[in-house]
Specification:
Elements lengths: L14 H10 L8 H12 L4 H6 L3 E9 L2 E15 H11 L14 H13 L10 H24 L8 H8 L17 H8 L2 E10 L6 E4 L19 E5 L2 H11 L3 E3 L9 H6 L5 E5 L4 H14 L4 E3 L21 H7 L3 H6 L12 H13 L13 H7 L8 E4 L6 H13 L5 E5 L4 H13 L14 H19 L3 E3 L8 H14 L4 E5 L1 H4 L11 H22 L6 E3 L21 H5 L2 E7 L4 E8 L6 E8 L4 E3 L17 H10 L2 H10 L3
Parallel strand pairs: 5-6, 5-7, 7-8, 9-13, 9-14, 10-11, 10-12
Antiparallel strand pairs: 1-2, 2-3, 3-4, 14-15, 15-16, 16-17
Helix pairs in contact: 9-12, 16-17, 19-21
């Protein structure tokens, strides 16, 4: 018997009002942290109290893990409110059962539950058994079918002509279609509440005022939603999606239009959120006016359907206030509000995504000029722990593929682990495919690199006091909490695997989890069990490797990921200590030809360095030294100097010293001299 799937954790239903009350009741004490939070929202962000109340913004003290344990900080809270029927559908898609609270839905929860159950009967297999991608495709098919049926009814001029509200309801999906009345009267708020239940908090996003990087989702492991979703009218056909919470409130404050913000900025559009957005005819995407924002908007438009998406990318002229000195366009909607831009004009300036295969200069004019004026914003995501390496390759960019090689045991996985952590700490979703090292061992290594210190291995068996053991275990748990919050995913492959299965997992992760950087370590282990010949000749292996690389290259381009792989390819057999070159990559020249960046981790026995052999971005090549730091398990570009402890050499009588020197062999005497240099 299958174990029942539990519902995802949710905050208490009254916590949103408690947070909001705490924020707005702080006006009596100007010295309080709550008053400082409200002043920040109103004065610094330019948001009115009425808008903050409408969106349910509040404040509360949350604790964040640090090296010393957990530190408390005053935070602004952004609730994701959804109707109970919507929560029920999300849980039903997971195979769980969420039951409405009868006292809060006026005893009408049965009607909503029955509708969801009836809609599930039309599916050929249970939604819980489908992948997230299959569920989304099923919804699209159902929507297309409803649109086609509505069109056929209108064209055939049947006696019963479908009203506009009936067609709209059909397009909103079977789960939330309302019963349109013959006189086309709009549904009242009471009718909507009785059918779909009240709004409840799905989750709460928390941002510290003291430190911007301190963010969390409460509770951990909960579902996804949209900030401001409860402000969107039930019959709305248009919606504005922004990158941040302040941007959504800024748009609403300036225009009165329904505006929501994404749960994780411009890098993520979870499937649960994608389902909510299917009912809208027009979707405005307003991401930050920089490289990642533009690329994220294009990615989301293709994910939701380019035919209904408009990209808001201010050009700097339309809507600009007369007294503004700068001609640069605003970075985001909140900055536009603060500077006095006409946000309605900026929305009117929005445009459709051009055809992905055909472009004119006018389609990319603004982006080209912006890249010329602000080249630093297009250099890709850096590796902060290796600044010299970053200055060579200018960071990892979307749609590129990187290949890496190096001698066996040279530290390729160590380098990739450090790079993946640097990316994940910047909010970039990373997917690991480790075919050589098991995930448990890989995570062990990543934990040490993340904390930059030695892990308390075997603390339970050490000769320590109970207090010391408890402190070490608590510190390790805090480290695990911080590591768990990183946007990092791992494939469940090991050893030889089918390339198409790997590609399927990559496609799923790119679509559902919005991963941007995929690491495959390594090519030889992945294709080790494949071969067209009975013995798997070298020719067969080369051909399979070329086919796999071609597929990965195509995937990187189509999904526009950050450096698709750092795809690890082992070198040919060469003399130990010999310097490797581009021709040293195992197989044919396909890997280095298809790659945008080619990196070799050189190790001649005396020194170790990263050698950039190819760089399509700007042609810069060169090398940077690497020095392994055993304590942190990381590489550094500068050597780690360790000061030798000061020790006092014991004195010995001269006669005894001469006697020992005369009687001891030379090797022993030299050993003593080495241990105690004078």
């Amino acid at each position: 018997m299958d174990k029942a799937v539990e519902c995802l954790p949710m905050p208490p239903k009254k916590v949103v009002s408690l947070h909001s009350t705490r924020l707005f009741d702080s006006t009596s004490d100007e010295s309080s942290q709550e008053y400082a939070a409200l002043e920040y929202l109103v004065e610094t962000r330019g948001l009115s109290k009425s808008v903050l109340r409408k969106y349910g913004v509040g404040c509360c003290t949350y604790k964040f893990p640090s090296k010393e344990g957990y530190v408390g900080s005053m935070c602004v809270t952004f609730p994701w409110l959804m109707r109970e029927a919507e929560v029920m559908e999300q849980e039903e898609l997971r195979g769980a059962a969420y039951h409405w609270s009868a006292d809060e839905s006026n005893g009408t929860n049965k009607d909503g539950e029955e509708r969801v159950k009836e809609s599930a009967k039309i599916k050929q297999k249970k939604l819980s058994e489908m992948s997230a991608l299959d569920r989304h495709l099923l919804r699209q098919q159902r929507k297309d079918k409803a649109r086609a049926e509505a069109s056929e009814d209108v064209e055939s001029n049947k006696e019963h002509v479908l009203s506009r509200s009936t067609v709209d309801a059909m397009l909103k999906g079977a789960e939330f279609a309302t019963n349109a009345q013959s006189n086309d009267e709009p549904a009242t708020a009471e009718d909507i509440n009785s059918r779909y239940g009240p709004y409840i908090p799905r989750r709460i996003k928390v941002r510290s005022i003291e430190k911007k990087s301190w963010q969390r989702l409460d509770p951990p492991g909960g579902g996804f939603g949209l900030f401001g979703w409860h402000t969107v009218p039930h019959d709305a056909t248009q919606i504005i999606i922004t990158e941040g919470e302040f941007d959504a409130m800024a748009v609403y404050q300036a225009t009165g239009r329904p505006a929501v913000s994404l749960p994780n900025g411009c890098r993520s559009l979870p499937m649960e959120v994608l389902v909510l957005l299917e009912r809208f005819d027009t979707v405005y995407l307003w991401m930050d006016n920089d490289g990642p924002g533009r690329e994220g908007a294009e990615m989301f438009a293709r994910k939701m359907g380019v035919e209904r998406c408009l990209l808001v990318q201010p050009g700097g002229l339309r809507g600009r206030p007369m007294n503004l000195a700068t001609t640069s366009p605003p970075k985001d909607a909140n900055e536009a509000l603060l500077q006095g831009w006409d946000i309605e004009e900026l929305l009117a300036e929005s445009s459709e995504l051009p055809h992905e295969r055909i472009l004119k200069f006018s389609d990319l004019r603004d982006q080209v000029l912006h890249e010329i004026i602000h080249p630093e914003r297009y250099r890709g995501s850096p590796i902060p722990s290796l600044p010299g390496f970053t200055s060579l390759i200018k960071g990892f960019r979307r749609g590129e593929m990187t290949v890496l090689t190096g001698p066996t045991g040279s530290g390729k996985t160590t380098f990739l682990g450090q790079a993946s952590l640097d990316l994940a700490e910047q909010g970039i979703n990373v997917l690991w495919g480790s075919f050589e090292i098991k995930n448990t061992r890989l995570m062990h290594k990543l934990l040490q690199q993340y904390t930059k210190d030695v892990l308390p291995v075997g603390v339970a068996e050490r000769d320590m006091s109970i207090e010391e053991k408890q402190k070490a275990i608590t510190s390790l748990a805090a480290l695990a909490d911080k590591f768990e919050s990183l946007p990092m995913y791992f494939m469940k492959f090991h050893g030889g695997s089918d390339v198409d299965d790997v590609l399927d997992a990559m496609e799923y992760a790119a679509y559902v989890h919005d991963v941007e950087h995929i690491i495959l370590d390594n090519m030889q282990f992945m294709i080790s069990r494949q071969g067209s010949g009975p013995k798997g000749s070298s020719h067969d292996k080369f051909e399979m490797q070329d086919i796999a690389i071609e597929k990965f290259r195509k995937f990187a381009t189509e999904y526009n990921l950050f450096s698709l792989v750092t795809l690890v390819v082992h070198p040919r057999k060469e003399d130990e200590g010999a310097k490797l070159g581009i021709s040293s990559f195992y197989g044919s020249a396909k890997a280095t030809q298809e790659a945008d960046t080619v990196i070799i981790l050189q190790n001649d026995g005396n020194r170790k360095f990263l050698d950039v052999k190819k760089n399509r971005f700007d042609g810069t090549i060169g090398h940077v030294p690497l020095h392994f730091q055993r304590k942190s398990g990381r590489y550094s570009e500068t050597p780690e100097f360790v000061t030798a402890p000061s020790t006092k050499i014991p004195t010995m009588p001269t006669a005894n010293l001469k006697k020992a020197k005369a009687s001891a062999p030379l090797s022993i005497y030299q050993s003593i001299r080495d241990q105690h240099p004078v």
